[in-house]
Amino acid sequence: MRKIVEAAGGILYRRRQETDDIAQRTGADASATPVTPLHDVADGGATHRTPLFDDIEVCLVHRPKYDDWSWPKGKLDPNESHRHAAVREIGEETGLPVALGPYLGEIEYPQAEEGSKLRHTKDHTADTKHILFWMATPISPVENLKRTGALGPVHRADKGEIDEVVWLTPDKARKKLSHSTDKEILALFIDRLEEGAADAMPFLIVRHAKAEARKSWRGTDANRPITPRGAAAAFALSYELACFNPIRLSTSPWIRCQETLETFAWQTGRDMVKLPALTEDAFARSPEEAWECMLSEIQYALDHRLPTAVCMHRPVIGGIFEHLRGLCASPTLAKRLIAKSPYMPTGTAMALFVTPTPDGPRIIDIQKVSPLVY
């Protein structure tokens, strides 16, 4: 019987200090605006000028066991999501704490071809490795310390697993990568850069965890708390939110929303910002005011480069989704924001990646984020 080994990883990238490099090489003014170089690509007889993205560097790791250069990645631990495994493995293999960005794609190949330069076997009976990839960026040591309580420990890989780490421009990385499948992921990364992903901010919409039933609760609706099962989901969700490292935590002031983010806030030492416009009652009175509140949060996240998580209620999410679909880069992407109730399960999140444009915020990626409760 075929065995499928699940794994996850990503392309860790950073901005080069392009102006300093140019100044050192040519003696040019370091304050000058760098220009992204172009190269010619033939397409059906026509020649197009496409960016090399030489202001970006990506991280490759060398595995001595296979003597190959590849993206940092590894197998899922028991009771671990692909998302969390990607953050952990990238951190272990590069030595840098990271936060996830837009999703890239997946590859699959027979385990027997691990280390092979051409992974092309179509044997559907062979044991298979299935890997999901994300974009990822480094976070500061201070941010890493704040996040550790929510994410859990990450230990550096030993020299027998990874013995060298290099940073290269995408064009040079393409030449150094050992495997055809890794080059396919690089092509998806370039596609994301062309969408503006290097400037994208994670903006997480959280639906509060399962709350006590209205019929059995004797207090006010605003004070209705989450259930013990809801508390377990909220605790597990913190593990997943940490993968995106939200720094600003905003919430409806009603208890069930505050309790959903409370564990993550406590683990990371962050305060919660209360947004009265996002309660169910406030939304019922003025849906437009709720949207204006949400849009201001998105703009604040972009202006201040602050990954953000906002917790709210089912009816509010439905109204907000109607507006967010108009910000999506494509109709296909907009369909991920479900148009019928309940929009999202309780205790889950949607990670939106938003880029700034002259016409306002644009959403280029949407990821479902569900906790693993075990």
TrEMBL record:
Pfam families xref list: His_Phos_1, NUDIX
Domain Nudix hydrolase: 37-191
Family matches, as Gene3D superfamilies: Nucleoside Triphosphate Pyrophosphohydrolase, Phosphoglycerate mutase-like
Database matches in SUPFAM superfamilies: Nudix, Phosphoglycerate mutase-like
Keywords on record: Hydrolase
Coiled coil: none
Entry-linked InterPro entries: His_Pase_superF_clade-1, His_PPase_superfam, NUDIX_hydrolase-like_dom_sf, NUDIX_hydrolase_CS, NUDIX_hydrolase_dom, Nudix_hydrolase_domain
Keyword GTP-binding: no
Record-linked PANTHER family: BIS(5'-NUCLEOSYL)-TETRAPHOSPHATASE [ASYMMETRICAL], DIADENOSINE 5,5-P1,P4-TETRAPHOSPHATE PYROPHOSPHOHYDROLASE MUTT
Protein name: NUDIX hydrolase
Organism: Bifidobacterium santillanense
Organism classification: Bacteria, Bacillati, Actinomycetota, Actinomycetes, Bifidobacteriales
